[in-house]
Fold:
Amino acid sequence: MSRLDDVLMLVGKLNYTWTNTESLFIYLIAHLLDTNKEAATVIFLTLNTTRARIDLIERLAKIHSTTPDTKAAVLKITARMTREQRLRNKYNHCIYSFDESGRTASTQLMRIVDMDENLKYGKVEALDDEEMLRIQTTIDSIVDVNKSIWGFMKANNISV
Structure:
């Protein structure tokens, strides 16, 4: 298997894991608002960015009617998702480059910095073994957040 195949497999797994875990926010929203899954789904889908969804959940956790235990657990979950979001965003918003053999790979951030009479393009980084390990570590961390949300749901009798 080439580096191209490895990268595509890991980025696909990263996106699947992220989306699967982020969808559990629906249950956090329902719980924090004391509403049903259908209403929480409408709210979740109306907020079209992860940042907006996390902001809502954090703000709901911080209101006075939220118990201290729930507040602490929810804020821990959102902090962990926020930490992992940076790498996920990088791989969703970059240009991938591979050599003709598909073995050597790199990413370039999709940014332009306009500096007087010159342009500077986004940072180029190698997709080496160390970076592949970072992606896998992020996937593992997101899976752990997923398990934490399920544990919170079980502890609070939140039905699916």
User: Anything to note?
Assistant: The CA atoms of residues 51 and 140 lie 21 Å apart. The longest strand covers residues 94-98.
